[in-house]
User: Fold these one by one.
Assistant:
Number 1:
Amino acid sequence: MTDLTDPTRRLNLWPESASRPVGTAIQPSVVYASPDPDTLDAQYEGRLHGYTYAREGHPNATVLARRIDALEGVSDGIMTGSGMAAVTAALMGVLRTGDHVIGGDQLYGRSLRLMGQDLPRLGIATSLSDPTDAERFIAAIRPETRMILLEVVSNPTLRVADMQAIAAAARERGILLAVDNTFTTPRGCRAIDLGADIVIHSVTKILAGHSDATLGYIAATDPDVQRAITDFAVTTGMTASPFDCWLAERGLLTFPLRYDRAEANARALADHLAGLPGIRRVLYPLRPDHPDHNRARCILGDRGGHMVSFELDGGRAQANALTRAAPDIAFAPTLGDVNTTLSHPASSSHRGLTPEARAALGITEGFFRVSVGIEDIETLKAEFEAAISNAGRA
Ligand SMILES: *Cc1c(COP(=O)(O)O)cnc(C)c1O
């Protein structure tokens, strides 16, 4: 008989219940006890499913990964502790010294750093190319090119990659195509349908959606590639926290509603901004004046996404005046929150570039990127209008 009088004993006292909990439980346990070595053998050999140690996997990561798998139309994806852990595992789990990788030239800032500094340090050659120009991009392929890393819609100028042409070229040559689908989400486009072999997410952004969990996700269509990536992520400790997975699963329950609302708001805000004095240009993939409008229609259909960028007349003084005049819109370098956030690439994500390199991308001191949230659109329009007019007086 178990001695309940000793409070120091770990005992399984969870009560039986004829009814089931509606919410997912959180399981923070690091270790799992098996009944005997034969059972442990069966677990390691895959004959029985069982957890052993949380770095290797835990129920909250499994639950969340199965849900994102279903959205992306894949199986056996894994959760990682951040979006950058997912990008890193996708590359480092597969590539070896002597391989070559091509990345889009407007990847997420830390992905650019990985390509520019860390992979070359390990003997993996990299190059960056503009994925809106498929011919030039494909010309960068070398005999030792093993992988291509793309984002469908770029940050912050929202250019749309020529996915079809690049995916076809990659497939023909046996090159793995990894797609970071964070901006577009599986609701905007399914990476696998576009020809991706590996799909990556920063779940931190709109999938989780509340700026309170840092997580990533990776899935590969080839089970051997998936195994290599999973082993690398487990070995290097890129584990996701059970609590973050639990929060993200709760966020995911409203993801379709949040995405649709944020997208409708983004489209309306883009059109509103385009009609305001003091605005030099507005970038939104589905607007007819977007440089990749036709390709956006073809790849994204009517899903323009929740990101809008615009360029203000003026320089840093006008940019300062704009953010100060919009105190209820967080000036913060993130995206995908339930609320609208505003980022200024010249002072944040793209501050490391030379002014010439920024100018080549069209990122001036007046350039802003907006991650549009789910607020009332009339309030958002009014707040932006007031802030832009204040900037004009600066
Ligand atoms: C934010 C982001 C990442 C990195 O994700 P973290 O969760 O912040 O590590 C990678 N790719 C894209 C496109 C992102 O927006």
Number 2:
Amino acid sequence: MSLHVDVSIRILIFLCTLLFLKECHAQNCLNDKYRPQLHYSPAKNWLNDPNGLVYLAGEYHMFYQYYPDGTVWGPMHWGHAITSDLVHWEELPIALYPNALGDIFSGSAVVDFKNTSGLQTGGDPPLILIFTQASGNTQLQSIAVSNDRGRSFGFYAGNPVLQNTDKTINDFRDPKVFYMNDKWIMSLAVKNKIQMFSSNNLKNWTKLGEFGAVPLQGAHGGVWECPDLLSFTLDGLKLWVLLVSINPGGPNNGSATQYFIGTFDGRQFRKTGIYQNLWMDWGPDNYAGVTFSNEPKNRKLLIAWMNNWDYGQVLPTVAWRGQMTLPRVLDLQRIDGKPRLLSTPAVEVESLRNLAQFYETTRPLWIRSRHDFTNDLQFNNSLLEVDGVFDTQLTINDPSATFSICFYNGLAEEVCVGYNFGTNNLFFDRSNSGDTSFYGNFGQISYANRETRNKILQLKLYLDTSAIEIFADGGYTTMTGLFFPTQLLTGVRVKFSSGIAVNQLKILSMTIRGLKSIYNC
Ligand SMILES: *[C@@H]1O[C@H](CO)[C@@H](O)[C@H](O)[C@H]1NC(C)=O
Ligand SMILES: *[C@@H]1O[C@H](CO)[C@@H](O)[C@H](O)[C@H]1NC(C)=O
Ligand SMILES: *[C@@H]1O[C@H](CO)[C@@H](O)[C@H](O)[C@H]1NC(C)=O
Ligand SMILES: *[C@@H]1O[C@H](CO)[C@@H](O)[C@H](O)[C@H]1NC(C)=O
């Protein structure tokens, strides 16, 4: 049977190539239990961090931590998938297998336009992968090259290209490389800090500054991983954002990604401003996010592993385990006067809208205790894009008041996204979302400190079969979370609760769209 599937996939790929069909994929239909229909997941086996996100010649490449022999973490390989539209992915053969220097841990990829590496053999610039190899307690950096637009890869004969001189530290990993002022700059996670290196040729690396440990900066509840240093323009000035994933120690337990705002002079990142820990995403399931290199529209386009090390290896999926977030665009802007990172879903995701499945309120709705939108919709879909605008000012102030948008099924299972009027917090509640039994704390409610006090709260939600992405206030506060319902969640209702009887929730507008699966099922 698997031979038969292989042959039909080959024929499909052949037809796609022949007909130049952009939205044609090898993965014709994946719809096993909990299988995401909007988000990337591997057909089989274990996936974690996205690696080597890079655009080249019409294709976005995503590599990722992959174990091809099981659905838990094991000796790491680089899995590989490509897309031309950021929505429909095609899984390609494994790009990198472990070798004598070790397993293939996380890292990045660049297009070496100027042949600085000397590794270009053909007419097109080579793709260079820069990654950690791990063997026992040793972690070092290696590179590999592709001269055929990312279809085959060869290890550089001079590996490793960077080794740790401090033998007291085992954690020395996750190189993220970009080009600046005729040099390659690498940020690397070294236990509790980020070290910077530079190189002319991607082979020879010189240590620059470091950040995070002395003086102590940010959250340190766990090891630092997967840095990414990004430049933005704000008020006409260049500012830098350093992403640092941390595990454990996230704002809702386990894995999460913090960020720092500051300056970078080519050697040293320095934090500016006085702020407590900043989180790129407050939800339980957003980790190891990094951005694409060579993005054609110059966007800071990020994909993260939608999971948490607390329970990532025991999720109740069967053939596969692990999925990625939607591609998100990062930006740095001011909100309530403060510079803050914001994330919004890439505009390409809108191509999944089913134009026949559209509902919107035509006038404000006042809600005493609940309103069910399910019958208003005139369509039945568990893949939804919801845009709600809410008034957070009540007639009579009530700090105990809350509202939530809940997605539910006929078994009374539900996933809720809500707002707490007293604390100005957002929350994500999956306590009654179906299977939570595989991990004791999976059902705990997650909270996010909303970045603004604006009276108008905007919520944008993407609902998939087993995940939700929440973007509040245009993306200044985001939360991402998994859930595992017994049946699909196709109902939508809003609940409001206040101890003061005259209070009602004012929904200024509500738009609900049905989305199409990324598969042809
Ligand atoms: C890339 O650089 C190497 C080393 O300088 C050189 O041998 C090779 O010919 C160059 N490749 C191309 C296509 O120019
Ligand atoms: C690295 O740099 C050193 C000194 O600058 C030089 O001797 C060596 O050949 C370089 N190695 C590579 C692989 O470029
Ligand atoms: C999760 O976080 C909460 C709040 O910080 C804390 O009280 C609880 O002990 C944590 N649970 C675990 C398992 O770490
Ligand atoms: C909507 O679809 C779900 C899942 O396919 C199904 O369980 C439910 O009965 C449907 N609801 C209606 C009103 O047709």
